């Protein structure tokens, strides 16, 4: 299919803002993504760009949104405690305490679905259009099977569909919110008879589905990053943050290194594989390590600051990458 692929990772509000900033840099340099793949917060950006919002409009959208436009606090407190679990005989105290919690998720995402529908011009069923000539892919995990499903507006070439999990649908806000349904934090997304959750724990950087569309080049945007080597955590909160960063980093590098291996093989022995060398650029926000407080902090001030940071970081990286590609092409 060719063209430019854009991969947008998850990571809460910082990832949404940083990804929007990178999109601004791409737009500034006159580039247009043909295939956009996102997961979690990256799926929100991917949906907007896939629908046809410019990167400038995407940035303006985030700068107009506060946390209450994304999620609300649950009010059904009578369901929060299941006394039967607390007083069930047997088991240890920790097990009984966990069994007494009646909620399996904490925050209501219906405000986010309404906000997304408004910005994407969705119809009553939540479906929105994908811009002609552009392909949108959002990834989610089917909760019962644990399999990653790639909801897409167009299928990849037939020879590449076995790369995994593609399902062509009329993408809706429901598909996007399912991709962003962080387990325990947000409710699972229900699509038909199945429920789906955020694929961020297993595929936080959805590079593999973009490669199936055989792009000419790919820009990969990591949603969060931490300086390596990371320092030892000093508190329980920092330990959780480092764990989340490490999981995301492992997911990113597994896909990215696999793609680099395919590139090396394709360049060294073109006849040995049907796949071809695809230039890739990884843009990672080293100053935006995962933060428990920042994950859900959607504010205009943060949006402006991180979007500009992403735009500034990406502009220089992309310019150098384009120059190197032109030199390599002769």
Could you please describe the fold and organization of this structure?
The chain has 330 residues and is α/β, with parallel strands linked by helices. The protein is built from eleven helices and eleven strands. The chain has helices at residues 12-28, 41-51, 55-63, 83-87, 93-99, 110-120, 173-179, 200-203, 207-211, 236-268, 300-328, and strands at 4-8, 33-38, 72-73, 107-108, 135-142, 148-152, 166-168, 189-191, 194-198, 217-221, 280-283. Strands 1, 2, 5, 6, 7, 8, 9, 10 and 11 form a nine-stranded mixed beta sheet that branches. The chain has a two-stranded antiparallel sheet with strand order 3-4. A hairpin with a 5-residue loop joins strand 5 and strand 6 (148-152). Helix 1 (12-28) runs parallel beside helix 2, helix 1 packs antiparallel against helix 3 (55-63) and helix 1 crosses helix 11. It is globular and about 75 Å long. The model has no long low-confidence stretch (mean pLDDT 85).
Output the helix-strand order. EHEHHEHHEHEEEHEEHHEHEH
Overall pLDDT: 85
The biggest beta sheet, please?
Answer: 9 strands, mixed
What's the alpha carbon Rg, rounded to whole Å? Answer: 20 Å
Q: Please, how many helices? A: 11
Low-confidence stretches: none
Instruction: Name the overall outline.
Output: globular
Strand content: 5-15%
Question: What level of helicity do the residues show?
Answer: 40-55%
Annotation, overall tally of beta strands: 11
Terminal Cα span: 24 Å
Helix-strand category: alpha/beta
């Amino acid at each position: 299919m060719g063209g430019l692929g854009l991969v947008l990772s998850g990571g809460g509000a910082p990832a949404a803002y940083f990804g929007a900033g990178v999109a601004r840099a791409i737009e500034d340099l006159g580039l247009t993504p043909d295939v956009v793949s996102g997961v979690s917060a990256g799926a929100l950006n991917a949906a907007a760009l896939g629908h046809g919002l410019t990167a400038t409009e995407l940035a303006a959208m985030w700068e107009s949104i506060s946390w209450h436009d994304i999620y609300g606090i649950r009010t059904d407190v009578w369901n929060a405690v299941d006394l039967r679990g607390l007083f069930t005989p047997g088991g240890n105290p920790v097990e009984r305490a966990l069994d007494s919690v009646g909620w399996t998720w904490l925050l209501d995402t219906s405000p986010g679905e309404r906000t997304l529908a408004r910005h994407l011009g969705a119809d009553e069923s939540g479906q929105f259009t994908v811009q002609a000539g552009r392909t949108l892919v959002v990834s989610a995990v089917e909760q019962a099977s644990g399999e990653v499903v790639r909801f897409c507006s167009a299928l990849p070439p037939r020879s590449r569909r076995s790369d995994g999990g593609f399902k062509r649908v009329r993408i809706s806000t429901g598909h996007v919110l399912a991709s962003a349904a962080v387990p325990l934090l947000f409710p699972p997304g229900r699509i038909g008879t199945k429920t789906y959750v955020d694929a961020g724990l297993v595929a936080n950087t959805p590079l593999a589905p973009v490669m199936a569309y055989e792009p000419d080049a790919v820009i990969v945007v990591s949603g969060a990053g931490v300086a390596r080597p990371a320092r030892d955590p000093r508190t329980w909160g920092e330990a959780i943050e480092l764990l989340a960063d490490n999981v995301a980093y492992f997911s990113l590098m597994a896909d990215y290194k696999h793609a680099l291996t395919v590139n090396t093989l394709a360049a060294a022995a073109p006849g040995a594989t049907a796949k071809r060398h695809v230039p890739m650029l990884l843009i990672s926000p080293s100053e935006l390590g995962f933060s428990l407080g920042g994950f859900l902090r959607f504010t205009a001030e943060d949006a402006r600051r991180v979007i500009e940071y992403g735009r500034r970081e990406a502009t220089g990286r992309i310019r150098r990458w384009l120059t190197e590609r032109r030199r390599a092409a002769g």
